[in-house]
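Recap for those who missed Tuesday's class. We walked through two folding examples back to back. For each one, the amino acid string is listed first and its predicted structure tokens come directly after. Nothing is annotated here on purpose, so try labeling regions yourself before you check the end of the notes.
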Amino acid sequence: MTTGKPRVVLGVGAGIAAYKVCELLRRLTESGHDVRVVPTADALRFVGEPTWAALSGHPVSPDVWDGVAGVPHVRLGQTADLVFVAPATADLLARAAHGLADDLLTNTLLTARCPVVFAPAMHTEMWEHPATRDNVATLRARGAIVVEPASGRLTGADTGPGRLPDPAELFEVARRVLARGDRERGESARDLAGRHVVVSAGGTREAIDPVRFIGNRSSGLQGYALARTAVARGARVTVVAANVALPDPAGARVVPVGSAEEMRTAVLEAAGDADAVVMAAAVADFRPAAYRGSKIKKTPDGEPEPIALVKNPDILAEIGEHRRPGQVIVGFAAETDDVLANGRAKLARKRSDLLVVNQVGERLGFGTPDNAAVVLGADGSRTDVPRGAKEELADTVWDLVAARLKPRS
């Protein structure tokens, strides 16, 4: 029976992280999605069938022989708007990559013609094994989105990459992939597949003494929206995050930094093989000339001591000057007045392909869930983005980037 709701098949692999997927299922159903849970047989050793059935409102079975009159091994994949597999174990990735069809989930993967997302979770050694890396590359080459696992505490005392990302962030991936699928069909919905993109986010802090710093109000929301939308479009994403107090975007590798110098080092390293670099972070133009090793005290008359400043490196201009062939560079300009005039001057000075110009101020731009901007192109183009969710601005930026990327050989 057709419900009119977006139809999601939630595949569950046999990993300890299966318990986290209950939260992902709850978020999907409560936001109006019709979810059919398809676990592997061993996944039910971790979370039982009654739990999945109660949370989804549908019967649950891993067996192709249950309800065989309805041909579920074909129908589920054919009618789904999204297939989302979490946790995707090393075994499940291998079976999917090699086209095996020995249970209901792998049959569904073979019949699906909608976007397919895998959220791997396993021990670090398994994730980094050449066999797993080859299977991931195969799935990505076929158009599947395989999000990068998070780093952190694993089963037992192990720590490293292989942890299932936060369910709230996995839900954002599902939501963005579905939104993208409604807007674009086929390969255009995953137009960044096989690409590596670097996004800077947040605001740098330049230390004055052990307790004070020069900083700004950037929260990192726009940079993280850029990261989420790039993951949903199939990209491998590196985020260089300066002082961001937000959950890591699922599927992105996050490199935390503090100062402009630290950001410069991290961005230049990540940009070495990147197809596109988007500098959404608010980088301080100046830093104290000297760091005080102890807290600065008031002078006897109560007047503050002057703080000498020196220029910080211009990361965007440096990347623009030393870009590798075919690399697309995007800058951001947060302005308070003469927005377009200042933006055009910055675009020429920074040697960027695109510059996202937005007005900032009290409750405007920084720390808000919405944004409005004008995207200026080095080719003379102008794209106006009306106020809306930061994900919408992010999608517009990636539309413009994708149009400028050279076809892969």
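Example two. Treat it independently of the first, because the proteins are unrelated.
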Amino acid sequence: MALTGTLKDFGIADILQLIGQQQKTGVLYLKNKDQDVQVFIRDGNIVRAESVTRQKKQLLGNMLVSAELITQQQLDSALEIQKRTLKRLGDVLIATGVITQEKLRQMMRLQVTESLYGLFSWKAGNYEFKQEESVQVDADDLTPLRAESVLMEGFRMVDEWPHLRKKLSNEATTFEKVKELPPPKAQPKEDDFDAAFDDAFSEEKKDENKGEFQSIGSSERRVHALIAPGRDVNKLVDISCLGEFETWKALVNLLNLEYIRAIPPSGLSLSAASGGGAGLIFRVGGMVARAAVTFVVIAALGFVASRLRPGSWDLQGTSASSYSDPAAQRLVSRAQQARIQAALEVFRLEKGNLPERLDSLVEVGLLHHEDLRYPWRDDYYYRRTSDRQFILLPPLR
């Protein structure tokens, strides 16, 4: 399967969806102005991701030091041994008893997932997928990830990042504890590090932390325990070993529930550091909030509908799916997906959960049949993954 082009014409979500559905094996090469990433895929599952241009702070050894799992002296000593023996750094660290194999694998997994999910923030770049049957699954590599799971997590991050940045806009912000967390309902069998890591990257446990930024899970407990004077957002990201997104989300959860208080950097007001009145928005609940959100979404839906109704476009009888320029077709599709997402949100607010099928949006009068495929010939791919989460992708062309 020859697959090459630019991310403006064929996005990372489309590429992973296509490779996953066809269960291909090979290497996906992605490159933009500053980064060069290789994603290794076996039978449609992602088994490894490597950044060729990884920054120094993202190197495994430096990540271990930043996480305070090893010292700089231990890293320097291991690097000297590595030069003499040509062994992998991880093997040296394990052999010298500096770190356990499980902790190392968890950090390796974090390194890979951070590179992988970072791809969803790319706005431009080139890609090429080469089929290579030699791609093997090594016990020391990342546990294979289903392409669909990566898409779900990537879209979740893209969707929630603006809310996190609005609430917590300055990475130099530090924190102080206001009150202790309530005791957990059940004590996990793993140690704190393992439980927190699994909470961040396990599909089953993620449901505990989805949605309205209002739950306390292992990630929040770990971050809360690590809060201390002088530790800013970046430091907490390093030592929590949860990844940037999960750490930010845990901090916002704790701020919203008033378990911690933000201390802005010198010279900044608290409102500037925390995004002004964003905290009030997150705390508004009940029927008033629901009515307000519904009104806003319906208003936006009506506005977009007036601009995107297929019949209102002067196409001189030409079907939108026959555009000769795929970039233009994708541009229209992105706007149409936003309209479908808005309709899904209205449906969820009124019914309490998402529909099983997109046709339900037509049945309740939120959309028309042509909206479910415009500007494509086939319907959009939709799957509900929970009462609040879903996957919405353009059809395979």
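Answers for example two:
Confidence is low (pLDDT under 50) at residues 203-213, 270-289, 304-322.
The two ends are 14 Å apart (CA to CA).
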